[in-house]
């Protein structure tokens, strides 16, 4: 430890600098990370309501606070003081701890995210990051996976069938999309040669992985939308068939914790996406060229990091405001039959490219040209394969131009018998149904 203290910060690695932080600075970082997660959550809730309202030509929140920006704070205070109703069949201990697990794991993901390079905080040189460990990427994956336990336990402990079904959906959903999300990180790890989030950011100095590894970036974005149970993948809380989903029986502060956990996870996974694929805290081009990288030093990188996070968070809002909810079978088919196979093929391609570049003197342009030619040949072959004709179905019901089913044209609808007034012999009249077949007509005196 004394040897570390004797070294200058420039000569120490990121992990050594962070290990040298005093206790007061570590506690300050913890408080700042918690405040950052809460403030970004309050901001995103109102921002989402305003953006969706603009998409739907509505006003949105505009009463509480300047421009309505304190609406989420007012909603949180209202939920905290609302009446709490606990179901009689609930498992009280698990019912209480479930939302705590979801919220705590959501905040834990911020611990390994690098927000800025070396900065000065009250005269102490440090990184704007809580810890940097060799397996930082796995910490985020583990925290997001454990957070699902809160949803599963909350649905089970409620003692109601609808929350239980929502929690089971969430378990199947996370298992499916955790695999796709984990596989999309393999290409990033191959290029960065490290599982440390700080090393991954440093490896993107020459180019962001979002452009170099575009398929991994797209699959990762789809996976985090499914991981956070957001529209169009919000199947665990589908109100059309599950009332409110896994949190139907929750109210007051416990419901607020579930609500907070969802949005904190959105913010944290957005920050994780920026770290892995969008260069982290580094300034985008051409701002990075100003003053020999002057905007990549000091506190400026924190601004670029937040702006990039806002871009990913806007993507979450955009998807919710435009796409309808998937059917459950469509959702699972997308994860198992599309994302995972494509990811595996992409990993094999990336591993082959890196092996070729290592063993032979092959330039990047040659690899791109050869890869583009192979893809073009595959596309042409797929176009030449004749489509399999659909099997004939003689029992099909013909449809009109508007896709409305109509009855067969040879179907004759029987006519309804006429209603006649028959006068009896006593001068009174009575209504009777007189058919045209198998019946005699009544005469003027009412006799049949």
Description of the molecule:
- Residues 436-448 have a biased composition (Basic and acidic residues).
- It is found in: Cell membrane; Membrane.
- Helices cover 57% and strands 5% of the residues.
- It has 448 residues and is mainly α.
- It has a domain at 82-382.
- The strands form 2 sheets. Strands 1-2 form a two-stranded antiparallel ribbon. Strands 3-4 form a two-stranded antiparallel ribbon.
- Helix 4 crosses helix 12 (252-277).
- Mean pLDDT is 81; it is low at 1-6 and 429-446.
Topology:
Layout: H1 2-6, H2 14-19, H3 23-55, H4 71-80, H5 92-108, E1 116-121, E2 124-128, H6 136-157, H7 161-192, H8 197-202, H9 209-212, H10 214-227, H11 239-242, H12 252-277, H13 300-322, H14 328-359, H15 364-384, E3 419-423, E4 429-433
Antiparallel strand pairs: 1-2, 3-4
Keywords: Cell membrane, Membrane, NAD, Quinone, Translocase, Transmembrane, Transmembrane helix, Ubiquinone
Subunit structure: NDH-1 is composed of 14 different subunits. Subunits NuoA, H, J, K, L, M, N constitute the membrane sector of the complex.
Enzyme class: translocase
Key descriptive features of the protein:
15 helices; 448 residues; 5% strand; mainly alpha; disordered C terminus
The beta-strand count equals 4
First-residue to last-residue Cα separation: 118 Å
Question: Helix-strand pattern, N to C?
Answer: HHHHHEEHHHHHHHHHHEE
Shape verdict? globular
**What is the overall number of helices?**
15
Mean pLDDT: 81
Structural class: mainly alpha
Q: Walk across the major sheet and give the strand order.
A: 1-2
Please report which band the strand proportion falls in: under 5%, 5-15%, 15-25%, 25-35%, 35-45% or over 45%.
Answer: under 5%
Rg estimate, integer Å: 32 Å
- Describe the sheet with the most strands: 2 strands, antiparallel
Instruction: State the share of residues found in helices, binned by percent.
Output: 55-70%
